[in-house]
Amino acid sequence: MATVTGARPYVVVSAAMSVDGYLDDATPDRLLLSNDADFDRVDEVRATCDAILVGAETVRRDNPRLLIRSPARRAAREQPPLRVVLSRSGRLDPGAAVFGPGAPTVVYRGEPLPTVLDDLVSRGVRRLLVEGGGTVQAQFLTAGFVDELHLVVAPFFVGDPAAPRFAGPGRYPHGAADRMRLAEVRPIGDVVLIRYLLGPPDGD
User: Where is the Bacterial bifunctional deaminase-reductase C-terminal domain positioned along the sequence (predicted)?
Assistant: First the structure.
C-alpha cells in the first residue's frame, strides 16, 4: 500500500455518485447512494489513513463524525485519524459532530492546498482520505494532488441540475491524453466500486 508521494501525503479521493454523476439530490435530506457493505469498505479505508478531510459545506449538510466505526479497526490503531475541515469563512457550528469526542480536529481557514498538505505532513499525516464534498475533491483533482480515486456508482439517476455533481468544469491533469490507470472494479451489492490510480507508476 502506497503511503506518500514526494513531500506531501498520499491522497485518496473517495466519492459515491449516481449513474449520471450526482453526489446528492437537491432536497434537504441526505441521499444515500451506497449500501452497508460499501460503508464498511469505506470504514476499512479510513482505518488505513492518518487523516480524513472534508469541506465546510459537507460538515453543514451531512454533519459527519469522520470516525472509524469498527471497534476492531479502532483497537488496531495507536490513535484515530485526524479530522480535517477546509473552510473559507471559518463559520462552523461548534456543536457539529466533527468537533465531538473520538479524534482531534483541525480546521484550515482559506489556506491554499499546498500549505494545508505541508502542515499535515508536519503533523505526521502520510496518507490522507478526502471524502467530500465535490468542490473540495475537484480542487484536489485539478491541482494534481490525488494519487488514488475511489468511485462508487449507484444504480439510479438523479437528473436534477440543481444537485451537486462529482468534479465539474475545470482543467484536470488526467484528460484523454493522460488517462488514469484502472486498478480495480468490484461489485458491492447493487453498487460498483471503480478504483483508479493517478500517481506515477512506481507509486502503485
Answer: 9-193
